[in-house]
Amino acid sequence: MPKRPNIVRWTAGKLADLLELERELFNASEIPLKVRARLALDRYLCVASNSREINYLGSPFHYDGRLMPMLLPAYLAEINRIDLIAPLATATIVDIGANVGQFGATISRRFPGARVWSFEPNQSITELLQRNAAASPQWQVVPWGVGEEDAEVSLWAVDGKSAQGSILRDNATAGLRSADAAEHRVVLRRLTTHLRVELGIPELVDVLKIDVEGAEDAVLPGLAALRWRYLMIETSLARAGGLTVQGARDLVASIWGEEPTVIWQSVPALGALTIDAILALPSNRTD
Fold it and tell me: In sequence order, what are the beta bridge partners of 209?
């Protein structure tokens, strides 16, 4: 009996999250209603059938976690948000911590003229990321992560929950029933000017996205050779390691010599571990 209130709160929270995802899909008016309706249905069918492939914005999308299809509307909302700030039709985007390509697939299929570089060090899911990127000539997969120094480190991930994979084991298992996280050895590299040029990344990109589950303070210094207009970053609120929004601003200022402005940040739900934010460097903004 004492545990029932916790179960009730957990169930209410999950229901609220689900309703918010449905709202985001309904509000994605840039997608034809017929396509949205089909995606709404297919998401539930894929979960019920334990599938690992869904038709997403006109092409197959491959994933490793059974519930991943349910989360796709969040990426539609995310892309719409940044498109209002930095038009994405011909944008250049660097995506650090790409996982299986949820963000990259949404951009590439909505804005085929955008150029995307997706960095993902977890080799156990790189094949899925590459399959998702295969139909998009402007989308390039980079099979390593970014760090302050070149190194090989441990990354932890629970099977089927690779999107939560982290170099911090506590973050990889937070909120999950199983703490049986597998250890993966992954390669991190500093994105030097030489590597940037080799990958075809321009010196100044429109959007830098960082979603690295608490490793933000290690990733940002590794990107010092790259300039950007807008930074989308998942920051820490109540999880191990990582940066707060203000901590990210302070670190950006120390690396790029300029205090970034906060363009937007999410309102965390009850019990949330993270806050998403969009920062801008005033000297690089185009608006």
Answer: 95, 232
